[in-house]
Design a protein that fits this description.
By secondary structure, this protein is α/β, with parallel strands linked by helices. It has helices spanning 20-27, 43-48, 74-96, 115-122, 136-143, 164-171, 186-196, and strands at 4-9, 31-36, 57-62, 100-105, 127-131, 155-159, 176-180, 203-206, 214-217, 229-233. Helix 6 (164-171) packs across helix 7. Residues 7-214 form the Tetrapyrrole methylase domain. It comes from Asaia siamensis.
């Protein structure tokens, strides 16, 4: 019999925010796999550290690049596609041997998670189970003590990789906004927030729920932002 690929959401960073189900299934795994930037510890692996079985075989998948190549560059889709194909083949070998595979993913696997690309490749042939995780944005607005939406507020989730014009357009619609994937896009995000008039209530959160957490009004935020940071714009326009 073939094995099972369990894609486990690791939550926003605090190891205590793992779900009981993720911990239980991780303890049953024969193989534990995760993604990482070259030369850095995988963030999902760090979160899961205390729960990985000693005898589990571990597979580390190093991205060919992270921010070094723009998503508009033709190389991006080609090389990332080849990378995910290779990762899926490695997991398929384990699954064909009947092993229980745990694929770790920061936050929630189906919210901008790399694990979804392996799900796309593996699920037609192998049994896959998804364990949702607390999303990074949920962790950040909780860390910032920032109620985001109520009543009939509309929430949008925007990738900072959009161009400034598109960001400003979406920020001008809806009530509350989460802007993810800041990194080198932070200056552009600031400009789009100012242009749309949404900068006054915006809050910057860096490494929410993790050690070194920072929560500040946007106008007090540092000039540069790491990948694990986001901007939150609360809604709640109506009294209650």
């Amino acid at each position: 019999m073939s094995g099972v690929c369990r894609i486990l959401g690791m939550g926003p960073g605090d190891p205590e925010l793992l779900t009981l189900k993720a911990v239980r299934l991780l303890a049953e795994a024969d193989v534990v796999a995760w993604f990482a930037a070259c030369g850095r510890p995988g963030h999902a692996r760090v979160i899961a550290d205390g729960h990985i079985p000693r005898n589990a075989h571990e597979l580390r998948f190093d991205y060919p690049f992270t921010t070094g190549v723009s998503v508009e560059d033709p190389r991006y889709l080609a090389e990332m596609g080849a990378f995910y194909d290779s990762c899926a083949r490695d997991l398929a070998k384990e699954l064909a041997e009947g092993r229980q595979v745990a694929l770790l993913c920061e936050g929630d696997p189906f919210l901008y998670g790399s694990a979804m690309y392996l799900f796309d490749r593996l699920s037609p042939a192998y049994r896959c189970e998804i364990v949702p995780g607390i999303s990074g944005m949920s962790g950040c607005w909780s860390a910032a003590h920032l109620p985001m939406v109520h009543g009939d507020d509309v929430l949008s989730v925007l990738p900072a990789t959009l161009d400034e014009e598109s960001l400003a357009h979406w920020l001008g619609r809806g009530d509350a906004h989460v802007i993810m994937k800041l990194g080198r896009n932070f200056e552009k995000v600031r400009a789009a927030l100012h242009r749309s008039g949404r900068d006054e209530k915006a809050v910057y959160v860096e490494r929410g729920t993790q050690s070194g957490q920072i929560c500040l009004p946007l106008d007090q935020a540092p000039e540069k932002a790491p990948y694990f940071s986001m901007v939150l714009v609360p809604g709640r326009k109506r009294a209650r």
